[in-house]
Amino acid sequence: MVGRNCSTWVQVSQPPRAEQQGQLLGAFDEKAYLAGKQLKPGDDPYREHAFNLQESDRLGGERAIRDTRHYRCASVNYDADLPSTSVIITFHNEARSTLLRTIKSVLTRSPASLIQEIILIDDFSSDSEDCQLLSQVPKVRCLRNGRREGLIRSRVRGANAASASILTFWDSHCEVNADWLQPMIQRVKKDHTRVVSPIIDVISLDNFAYLAASADLRGGFDWSLHFKWEQIPIEQKMARSDPTLAIRTPVIAGGIFVMDKSWFNHLGQYDTHMDIWGGENFEVSFRVWMCGGSLEILPCSRVGHVFRKRHPYDFPEGNALTLHQVSQCQMTPSVCHLNFTSLEEPPPRECPPRRCHHRVVCPRRNTRRAAEVWMDEYKQYYYSARPSAQGKAFGSISDRLTLRRKLNCKPFRWYMENVYPELRVPEQEAVSSVLRQGGLCLETRGTDALGLAECRGIGSIRPQAQRWELIEPLLRQQDLCLAISAFTAGSKVKMDTCSAKEPRQKWKPKGTALQHVVSGLCLDSQTPTGPLVVTQCRPQMASQSWEPQIIT
Ligand code: LR7
Ligand code: MN
Description:
Blueprint: E1 12-13, H1 18-25, H2 30-35, H3 53-59, E2 65-66, E3 85-91, H4 96-109, E4 115-122, H5 129-132, E5 140-144, H6 151-161, E6 166-170, E7 174-176, H7 181-190, E8 194-203, E9 210-211, E10 217-221, E11 227-231, H8 234-239, E12 247-248, E13 257-260, H9 261-266, H10 280-290, E14 294-306, E15 321-326, E16 358-363, H11 364-374, H12 379-385, H13 398-406, H14 412-418, E17 432-437, E18 440-445, E19 449-454, E20 468-471, E21 474-477, E22 480-484, E23 493-497, E24 507-510, E25 513-516, E26 522-524, E27 533-535, E28 547-550
Parallel strand pairs: 3-4, 3-6, 4-5, 8-14
Antiparallel strand pairs: 1-2, 6-13, 7-14, 8-9, 10-11, 12-14, 15-16, 17-18, 17-20, 17-28, 18-19, 20-21, 21-22, 22-23, 24-25, 26-27
Helix pairs in contact: 10-11
The structure holds ligand LR7 and manganese (II) ion.
Ligand LR7 binds next to strand 3, helix 6 and helix 10.
Protein name: Polypeptide N-acetylgalactosaminyltransferase
Membrane topology: Single-pass type II membrane protein
Pathway: Protein modification; protein glycosylation
């Protein structure tokens, strides 16, 4: 084996042979379709689609691409009786050559029995023939929106029209690689609550080269809710003995995934009040995890996508958006050259860090809806990272909140602890205050008791006893936190070892009162000598008034 020319190891996913073409495309005239719209000499090839149209057109309706999977994927077995899928592709003014390659690659590189249909949703493109003509291709259906809806409502329309029990969502400028579909359907067949994505390879927007993406990535985000590809945590990477196994991912990129249709419907499809583009991938990702499902990337399934640096289309409600500098190319996975020099050695996949500076559109409205419905108290970190989001109206979310209650979904805290513990909560600046009631201050005495005493400033003998850190929901002094001893009125309040999960320690401000979150009772100094208790909240009462005064 050793010493063989590496090129012999490179598998190529071939386009269909000429005799298969007829059955594949039926009455559809591929040449006429592509010739019907072409770049005029002298036109900027990037202008209309934000990729090099000339190169895409030159490739035509199909081409061979490199099989970028790990070699072990080729020997994985799948059930013979996998269910079929409806492929749903939404598009707005897609180039004919990229759209056609998307469709043809699905038809040629998937087992025919697994493709029930391809549903195209033409999201009010300027030329209705782009879609219409394609409906001559066997299995292809074309639905045209009567007005621009955006990709979210378009996908829901496609899903509602689908006849297969499994849905496959797509962008309109993709090419699938060898055997991409079987791993996806197999995973969903085994457990219908799984939502699965392929590794998304990179199709160069300049020369349309098909490039292998790193196989060690998963979907993540930062607090400004920007999607990014990130390395799998090192412990998980070490534990991966088999490179063909699924990778759990906190979020999906959004464009290419397979989901059981009844599970999609059960979980509330999409938030159809989201417009045009963006944010829906967070919404669906949080919802799937928090409401009982899971998200995976399947390394034996690879699909290429043309990653662009700008949106080639307009956003009709431009004021819903804000432009700012971020790393749009974070969205493009790192590409690493697979060097198949040996079958035993996995190919090197370390990628250099990239620096990216492009302008991107940030859909505040959609993202705000996702944050408001799903992120609970953690949405504050989104707003701190994106202060401009706070001002923008986001419409009513009551339907989505009802859905969340009805599905009995877990809190975002659960998601943070179990799905994405690597996402660090921003350091909160610990601000120390005294809690003043008239001329007296709340202080600790001995190990766990509390009382009121004359306020002492800095430099006093026991400044610590009156110094509180207010980090919602905790009121702390070093490792000790203010806690109730029971959930009933009149119960004593004492100090206890801090734990943000402990319901007895959760407080929130209510005017100048301090309310215990779970019991709804308020901190009360019934007698100045102590002990401190909780009683029914009466905001006007002096014994419940605690004015924080910051000390340095
Ligand atoms: O108004 C519109 N109507 C549409 O039908 C706007 C767009 N679209 C179509 C469009 O033609 C395309 O097919 O929607 C699809 C996605 O739009 P793109 O390709 O312009 O954007 P994108 O590649 O940045 O899309 C990524 O983010 C989106 C956020 O809403 C969606 O989740 C896309 O599905 C997602 N694409 C992918 O995840 C592919 C992998 C890339 C990554 C990361
Ligand atoms: Mn895309």
